[in-house]
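cron nightly-structures :: item 1 of 1
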Amino acid sequence: MKKRTDIEVIINHKRYTICGYESEEYLQKVASYINSKYAELKQQEAYRVLDSDMKIILMHINIADDFFKVKKQLEDMESNSDSKSNEIYDLKREIIALQSKLEHAEKEITLLKKENIEEQKKVVRLETELERKK
């Protein structure tokens, strides 16, 4: 079982103790992300005039938006990965089929070379025989 980690962080200029079973670095990264979201929202003029409940809701909406965008990217990447895997599988099958054809062609070439040598020997024999008969 993982060890529980408690870490003090500063979020939106306030000190909090957060805990979890992840590393301190990870928990600090989460706090940093939330801080960057606060900073992003504070730059918007309309955010400053909202009451605290609306600010919190807006923060949640922004984080959920980020989550769904990343989730969609992951799904697209997984779909693309599946497509690429299928393409690789098809290409491997095609390579195997082409290797088989190549092996067959090489055997046929070897056989035809042997036949050619035999035919050349026949030609030489027949030419020799023809020369003797003259």
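cron nightly-structures :: done
The chain has three helices and two strands.
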